[in-house]
Amino acid sequence: MKKKTMRMLSAALAVTLLSGCGAAQTNTPAETSVNQAMLLEKSAQPQESAYTFPEKFTGDWTGQEGKLTIHADAQVVAELGTALPTATVEPREFTQEDVDNLLKVLLKGEPLYGFNSAQKYLMTAAVSENGNYMAAAAMGQDGGSFTSSLQIYKLTSDALQADAALSGGVYELGTVDGRFCAATDKALCFVKADGSVRTYDYQGANLARCSINGGKFAAVLLENYSSGGLTHLATVNTAGEEIAALTVDSQVLDLSAAGRYVAVLYTSSLVIYDRNLRQCAVLEDVNFARRVLMRSDGSAVLAGTNSASLYLP
Q1: Does 275 score more than 80 pLDDT?
Q2: In what helix (H) or strand (E) does residue 60 lie, and over which residues does it extend?
Q3: CB contact set of 313 (below 8 Å; sequence gap of 6+)
């Protein structure tokens, strides 16, 4: 095919011109990518060498296996001045001063979120799975009694989205199947972004362990001393309904749920169940392990004092 020749107009050179000017500076391994906001103050300072626009931009490029040729020959007009603001940067760890300067530029000195600790005590916080909301677990007093609530904010606003009352004091806060989940000393509380709450009551039992770390369901281990010390393992959905339950006779060291599975680490074995608490896999001789991390693909990480291993059923 006959070669096509294209002459570029000066109005179409804006993007190419910037990349061409940048090519005049030699790249070194020490260069790093930084947020533009952090360069504002640095680029305004006098530089040892000034970078300016060229008076003319020329170049030839060939592509598409020689089928396309681009030729540029244009005058450069810089209406806002010929000097280019530049800054020399070096990679290093962020300091508190760097963070303060960045927040000053991005937030313009206005806090995005504020909390009055004189009214309530902030215990912990979590971000929703979609990254749109933050929930802060707070404890206060009402008539001489302690109260707990979950204050929900949209991350793009400082206005309170919802304030959901919780049953009992919050031990742990996480997310389950798109909802916030607060494990209290009385119940599992599943909270939507609008503040509506569904609860799974422990019925007087004590919470021994739980897993509320972004899976499709929650897993809890309850101890009922009034019933002879029976240990109750249960999986729970976000409606506050028990999916399945079984009585555990052995000591449980750790508990972890992810995806469709829940891993229970006993003193001498690891058992992986599905959400209906049917056994899917058993690993014996795990005396070294003290913690377990269930993964959504069905594998599990066992961690001990000096080592860790990945179990693939």
Answers
A1: yes
A2: strand 56-63
A3: 272, 280, 281, 283, 298, 299
